[in-house]
Amino acid sequence: MNISAELISRLYQEACEVELQAFKPGNVSVYADGHDMTVEDFRISAKVSAAVLCNTDYSLGEKIYYAVKATREAVGCNTNLGILLLCAPLIEAITLKAPENSLRQALDTVLTNTTIHDAEWVFKAISLASPGGLGNADEADVSEKPSINLTEAMRLASLRDRIALQFVTNYQDIFDFALPIYYNAAMKWCKQEWSALAVFVSLLCRFPDSHIERKYGSQFNRVITLKMTQLSEELSRAERPELTLPSLYSMDSEFKSQGINPGTMADLTVATVFTVFLEDTIKNSSS
What we know:
By secondary structure, the protein is mainly α. The chain contains 14 helices and no strands. α1 (5-21) packs across α10 (192-206) and α1 packs across α14.
């Protein structure tokens, strides 16, 4: 599909910025830094990774590795591995999409055709980012040379990592669950950042956060689900979403004091917003 790398880069960075504008309890946002990371760290990460992700000379795996490398060199920490893992295939899909296919159909082709070469580069990226998780799988230890393609490696990790699960379900959480929530919130509030928050809250109401589970096990799952359900109900009742800010400040402070960082759902939120932007671009270019 004839969408320029410059436009894709801009949409990716805009999606990252919308997620930062959303007040997601426990995460870094324009409302509050946290976990030894700042908003500026994430903005720099989006900027330096965008150029790499949109470089058509790189394979899928190379894009992810060199984007992680650029991020580490720029901010010295892992701000965006999950974002890169989710957004790189979307960028491949929009770049390769035939006019008669949907974005999701093109994404399915990308995920079906990943290679061992892709897995090698992604294993190197995960080792460099050092997030924990996929590297703990005996069947696909990221410190060893892979013998399976990237999607199969993600299949092995998918029972304990929700980002890996997207690779084997063709982004089911995003297309079948998160997108309708985003669009409904956007119709109600006409504000991208609050629509992104609706996605984040709804995901945490329904699924445990892999990042939290890797760090703490399941001990916080029940309380997070309860608090997010209460927040979801408050948002649905609010005439204006800004009326929920006192609850958001309180919850954000509580989560961060306990080291709770729902990073997986933040990454899925970025990918959801990016998917919205890509689908809007496809729609506008065909009209």
